[in-house]
Amino acid sequence: MVTITDVAREAGVSVSTVSHVVNGTRFVKADTRERVMAAIERLDFTPSTSAQSLKKNVTHTVGMIVTSSTNPYFAEVVARLESELYEAGFNLMLCNSGRDIDKQRSYIRTLKGRRIDGLLVLESVLSDAYLELLGSCSFPVVMLDSDTPSLTSVSDDSELGGYLATRHLIEQGHRAIGCIAGPVQHHQSIRRFRGFQRALAEAGLSLEPDWVHAGGMDSESGEAAVRQLCRSRRRPTALFAFNDFSALGAISQATRQGLRVPEDLSVIGYDDIEIARLLRPALTTVRQQTATLCREACRLLTQAIADKRSDVEQLHVAPELIVRESVAPPDE
Amino acid sequence: MVTITDVAREAGVSVSTVSHVVNGTRFVKADTRERVMAAIERLDFTPSTSAQSLKKNVTHTVGMIVTSSTNPYFAEVVARLESELYEAGFNLMLCNSGRDIDKQRSYIRTLKGRRIDGLLVLESVLSDAYLELLGSCSFPVVMLDSDTPSLTSVSDDSELGGYLATRHLIEQGHRAIGCIAGPVQHHQSIRRFRGFQRALAEAGLSLEPDWVHAGGMDSESGEAAVRQLCRSRRRPTALFAFNDFSALGAISQATRQGLRVPEDLSVIGYDDIEIARLLRPALTTVRQQTATLCREACRLLTQAIADKRSDVEQLHVAPELIVRESVAPPDE
DNA sequence: GAGAAAAACGTTTGCGCAAACGTTTTTATT
DNA sequence: AATAAAAACGTTTGCGCAAACGTTTTTCTC
Question: pLDDT averaged over chain A?
Fold first, then answer.
C-alpha cells in the first residue's frame, strides 16, 4: 500500500506537507501543493482511515443493528439512514441480529472495538440483557421505533396510528372489530393495541377477547387469524392488522375461504409498504413517516456525536391514515 | 478509552502479556492469564480494531455497494450476505450508490481508505467509468448478478430463467406472448430477453415488436405496459414480466381495466419476492436461488481474501420455475 | 544591510497494538 | 552445586498518520 511517506518522497517534500495538503490544515505554496497532488494522483494514494482514526479518535463510522433487514419496512429505514449518514459524512456498518442475544452481544463487542462514533438500533423486541449492553456503550445510541426510557429514541407514534386505524373502521360503520396483533413483547404492537382500545372505548364498543389474535407480524399470522375467526360463532366485520404483511395474509386467507374484501370483511394494515397500493383491493393502511423518522434519528445521532453529550430524548413521529379500497361499510 | 497499557498496569504485567492473552498467541501461566482477564473485565477493555488493522494489515471488513437496498430482492441479498460474512468473521459496510457515478466514485474512495479486505457489488446497471474504478481496486471484488468479463461474478442464470418462464407460457398454450423488459443497459434483463427469444424461436413463434415494453423494472412500468398493450389492435394473451414488481403493476392495471388474471391475461414474474405467494391470484414466477447465490459469492470472496489471489471466475446459479395461479391456458 | 516579522516548510512524537527480539526465572541433569 | 534447557514473561519497534513544535527562508522596515 502507498503511504504518506511514499508520496512525500515522490514529491520531494516532508510527510507533514503532504498531510497538510491532503487535509488543508496549513498554508502550502501553490506549486508545492500541485507537486504533492500530482504525486498523490500518480501513486493513487488514499490515506488510511485506520491510521487517521488512531490519531484523531474518530472513525466516521456508525453502526446499525437491526433485527433483520429483509423486512421491507426495515430495509427502507436502513437505506434511508444510510443515505442521511452519507450526507453527514459517516459510513454505515450493518448488523443483522436476528433477535439472537449472542449475536447482539457479539456485534456490540465488535462495534466497540471498531470505536464507532454512534449506534442506531432497530429491533422489534428488546431483552433486558440487551438494554444493559446498550447502556454500557460509550458512544451515543439512538433507538428506532422503541421508546426505552433510558435511551434516546425516535419512534412512530403507534398509539396514535392504532387509534386512527380503528377510528376509521368505526366511522365506516363497523362495530364488530377484531385485530391481528404482534407478539406481546413487541413494544410498537403494544402501543398500537392501546390506540385500538382507546378508539373502541371512545365509541362505546367492547373488546371481544376472541377477536384478538396475537401473531408474529408476518403473513402466516394473518392467515392463522382469519382461519381462527371463521371458526368462532360470531365473526367481526373488520380487522385491524398491526402490519401490512399480516393484513396481506389475512386478505389472502379470507379470499381463499370465499370471503370478499372489503364487502364481507374490511381489513386495514399498518406500514404502507410499497406493494400496498398495488393490491386489488388496494390496501387501506397507516403510513409511517419513514423519511421524517430517519431524518430525525440521523439528526439526533450526529448532534450527539458532534456535541459529545447525549441527554436522553424521546421523539414521536405522527403517522398518517391512507384510505384505499380494503375498508368499506359493513354489508349487514 | 481503555488501552492495552491500562490493562497491563491494572494486572501488573507487560503489554506483551496482555496482547498474548487476548490473542492466545503465546503460552501464559494460568494464574497470570486469569489476572489479565479479570483486569480486562474490570476495565471493560476492547482492543481497538484501528490499531490492530494498522499493525496486521487486515480489517475484517467487506464493503458492499448496492444500487438501492430498498428493493426487496436486493434487501434479501444484502441480509444474506451480511449473515454469511458474519459467520466468516467479517463485518459489512453498506453503501447505497443510487446509480450515481459520483456517489460510486466517492464510496470506492472511502472503501479504499478504509482498507477493506474485499468488495461486493450488486448493481443493475454498470457504466464503463464504474468498471474502471472497480478494476483499480487492490482488494478482491465479487460482482453479483452482472457478469463482466474482467471481474469475478456470481449471477442468476437469467437466460435460463427467461427461457423457463417463456416455455411455461407456451406449454400452457399461449402463442401471443408479450414481455415487460427492463432498461436496455440492464444486463440481467438482456439475458432474460435472450431466454425469452430462444423459447419463442424454439416453438416457432414470432416476436411481435409491439408486445415488448421496456421499462424500469418497477410497478409503474408494469402498469404502463398493460395500458399500452390494451391500446394496440391485437393483444397478447400472456405477459412475461422481468421482475415481480412489474408483474404486480401489470396485474394491478389489468384488473383495473376489467381484465381477469389469469383468464383474460396470464402473467408470469421473476424473483419470487415474499408477497408473490400471498397475492390473489398467487403469482407464478421464476425464483432466483438467492441463498445459493449469496453463499457462493461469499465463498469466492473469502477465498480470494485468504489466498490473496483473485483469478477471475464466472459462476451461474440456475433459477427455478414456481407455478402458482397467475398463468392459465388462454381462453380463446 | 541589519534586524524583525512573516512565510513556508521540516522533524518528531504518539495514537494502540502485535510480535520480533530479549531477559529472567524455574526446572531438570549430572 | 554447577550448568543447561525450558518456561514465562518483558522491552521495544513500527504500522500510517496528524499535528505540536522547530527550523529555514523570504520579505519588510528603517
Answer: 94
Cα separation, A164 vs A159, whole angstroms: 9
d(CA A110, CA A90): 18
| CA A115 from centroid of its chain's CA atoms | 23
The dotted CATH code for B158-288 is 3.40.50.2300
Distance in angstroms (rounded) separating the CA atoms of residues B35 and A182 = 47
Phi, psi for residue A4 in degrees, rounded to 5: -60, -30
Radius of gyration of chain B (CA): 26
The answer to whether residue B25 scores a pLDDT higher than 70 is yes
**Is domain A4-47 annotated with CATH 1.10.260.40?**
yes
Of A327, A272, A260, A277, nearest to B249 (Cα)? A277
Gap from A266 CA to chain B (nearest CA, Å): 16
- What is the arithmetic mean of pLDDT over A176-202? 94
Residues of chain A with CATH 1.10.260.40: 4-47
Residue A214: predicted pLDDT: 92
Q: Show contacts of A228-234: CB within 8 Å, 24+ apart.
A: A229/A178, A230/A257, A230/A259, A234/A176, A234/A208
Contact between chains at B59 and A69 (C-beta distance less than 8 A): no
Q: Is B99 exposed, middle or buried (0-12, 13-18, 19+ CB in 10 A)?
A: middle
Say whether the CB atom of A28 is under 7 angstroms from strand C.
yes
pLDDT of residue A332: 60
Euclidean distance between CA atoms A212 and A178, whole angstroms: 6
Specify the DSSP class assigned to residue A215. Answer: -
Q: What's the fold here for domain A57-156+290-318?
A: Rossmann fold (3.40.50)
Q: Which three cell numbers stand for residue B117?
A: 479486505
Q: B101-153 pLDDT, tens per residue?
A: 999 999 999 999 999 999 999 998 899 999 999 999 999 999 999 888 999 99
Instruction: Answer whether residue A77 shows pLDDT above 70.
Output: yes
pLDDT (mean) for B306-320: 91
**Which residues, in sequence order, are CB contacts of A134 under 8 Å at separation 6+?**
A108, A119, A121, A141, A143, A151
Report helix, strand and coil shares of chain B as percent, to nearest 5: 50, 15, 35
Chain B residues lying within 8 Å of A46, measured CB to CB: 109, 112-113
Indicate which of A7, A46, A83, A219 best probes the interface with B, i.e. most B CBs within 10 Å of its own CB. A46
